[in-house]
Each structure stands twice: as structure tokens, then as C-alpha cells.
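Quick illustration, no need to memorize.
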Amino acid sequence: HPAAVLSGSFDADGSGVVTVCADGSAYLFTSIRGSNPTRITSEAGPIRCAAFDPTGAMVACAGAADSIGVWGARSGEHLRDLPFVHAPNYAGGVSALVFAPEGAELAAACEDAKVRFWDPRTGDDTRKGLVVFPARSIAYSADGSKLLVTGRFGGGAAKVFLLGENRPPVQAEIAHAWSSSILGGVLSADGSLVLTFASDGSAHVWEAGSGRPVAHRAGGDAAILDAAFDGGRENPRVIVARDDGTVSVWPVDPLPAARARTPRPLFPSERERERRLALPLRYE
């Protein structure tokens, strides 16, 4: 790359890679060593985010312009543009992109505090846009029924939206302490939990349906750069990576893990001590 790499991701089967470079371009690679990359540029402006569709056939790129470009992931052929007009009194451009799990919808978090939706195959709008806040990241649940948006509102915030028909749009609103700033968030494999992480080194797990806090871990002064749930639907774990070089893994609910531990047998002296401490009760 001719400049710093801002982000990178695999396609669905791991054979393709898309990177976003600080020179305003995106690069398509295959995971075969020695393959030449395909450079993607946009006449509308520099690219700063990119995403594969779930099949790996398309890649969407966007950045400073009020437009998302869609390219063929194998050939690099430009397929179509998805333009929009940003709201007055706001900056233009796109900060994050994500495809729905089935690939029939593309969501874009725009700098005018809105999330917009398109069918990437036709360019048609798929649903009415959502008014949120200037977003840092967006993510669908695995079944496509929820959308998590995290952003820069106040000290940082997160919202979970229901995307099904005839349902209230906002399901839960989440905010960290005002002393921290939410840097990102993800949904658990079954969509029931939200993980948010912040610049003060804290990570929070919430119920996606209500916003009720479930677990919280503080990690000192180091900001969390990224975090994720594992793929488990029962007793999920969380991994967090901080900018001081540390990585930690912890269970959302520590009780099952604690119950699974078999205590060692007590030494005779320890058993005698327990008998004395239990008096006048009988220790077995």
C-alpha cells in the first residue's frame, strides 16, 4: 500500500480481502500469495470504508462523498452508485457500511446523523432511513432483524433498532458514563445482547431488548480498540483488545464457568479447620 491501511476484511469464504488505504483508495486482493491487487477509486471523493456482501460477489465503498459505489469483488468492475442528499446543517459523507446477512440490503451510516438503506443489486431504497446521531459503526444481527448503531452523541451512545414490519423502530437506547466515549459495539450471535466498548477502557454488555445492563468490566486507563463476542449462543464470552497491548477474555455470566470447576480435595489440616469454624454446626 502507498499509505497507511485504515481497515481490512475478508469475504465470506476467506479467499478475498478488501482494504481501505489512507490514499483514498480501496484494494481488492485474493488470499493467494503473490497475487496483484485491484485498486478501486471513486470520482466522487476519497474512500474511507468498505464492505463485502455476504456472497463475496460485490464490495461497497464510500467516504467523503454523498454516494456509495458498488463494484464487482472479483473483477473490480464498477456496477452502480447509490447517491443521496445529506441533510442541511450537517457534513456530508459516509462513516460506515454493512450488508444485511442475506445480502439483499446495504446500510450506510451517514455523517448527517442518518442511516440509509438500499438494495445493492438494483439501487432502490429498501426502507425509510433512520434518524440517529453521527455514527461510528453499524452492525446487523445474525438474522437481520436488528441493527446496532454506535456513535458520538454526547459521551457516546448506542441504539438497537428493530427492522421488521409493524414494529416500533427503537428497541433499546444505551449510554456509557459521560466521562467515556463509546468507540464501537457488536451484537451477540443470537442478537439478545449488545457489547459496547469505550475510550476509558470499559466494556459493557446490555440486553438488546431493553438496554438493561448485564455485565461490566473496567480495564484501567487504556482505551479499547476492538471487542467481540464469541460465536456461542449459550454462555457467550467476550474478547477485548486495548491500546496498551493487552487482550482479555471473560465470560458474560461467570457463574456457569465457576460451577464447572471441581474443587480440589481438602488436606486433613484444612478439614479440621473447617470443622472448628463450623461449630456448633456439624461439618461434613
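The chain has a mean pLDDT of 85.
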